[in-house]
Amino acid sequence: MQDFFNNVSRYPRYFIALILGIFLNAIQPFMPLMKRPVTAIAVIGLALGGLSFLTFTLRAMLGLA
Questions:
Q1: Is the Cβ–Cβ distance between 43 and 34 less than 8 Å?
Q2: What gap in Å lies between CA 60 and CA 65, rounded to an integer?
Q3: Positive or negative, the Cα torsion across 35, 38, 40, 42?
Q4: Is 31 strand, coil or helix?
Q5: Residue 35: which domain range?
Q6: Helices and strands per DSSP (H, E), number in the chain
Q7: Are 55 and 45 a contacting pair, CB within 8 Å?
Q8: I need a surface site. Which of 2, 17, 31, 48 has the fewest CB within 10 A?
Q9: Considering just the CA atoms, what is the radius of gyration of the chain in Å?
Q10: pTM for the complete prediction?
Q11: Which of 3, 22, 26 is nearest to 14 (CA)?
């Protein structure tokens, strides 16, 4: 029974490592664009705009006020 709980306790660490790896691999292609301040501001603004668009669209579709 102790082995079972040891195994289950490893899942949160695995989940965090998995999400962090996906995030870092998704950001990796945009890192060369972050060298110049103008393109960095544009990329960050585009990402924030896309995230807010997705948030507002989902709120409207789900009827959340």
A1: yes
A2: 8
A3: negative
A4: helix
A5: 2-62
A6: 3, 0
A7: no
A8: 2
A9: 19
A10: 0.62
A11: 22
